[in-house]
Task: structure prediction
Amino acid sequence: MIDLINTLNGGVGTTYKNRKVLLICPPPVNPTIDSGPIFGPMFKGGVEKSQQLPELYEAVAKMGGAGFLIAGSVISTDGVDGLHLTAESERKLGTAIAAKMKEMLK
Result:
């Protein structure tokens, strides 16, 4: 495991602060994925697993001092295959990321 004490605040032997980093947790896959001929078998059990990601990603963000955004709080995997996003969801996600970065850079 990485020694976080030596990697935070600029790293070993430096005095500058970390750059602002935003960790984005992907949205959970849509249950419709299970009925797909390709992604269904490939992502078997993925719906439940993807719903557990926010708490795991948040722990990593806190550990590293990064900003954090749960994409699933603003969008869903609403594309036709249950995995990808529609253009509208991509726009909403971009807007949410921009707002979070603006908040972080204050």
About this structure: The chain has a mean pLDDT of 89. Strands lie at 22-25, 67-70.
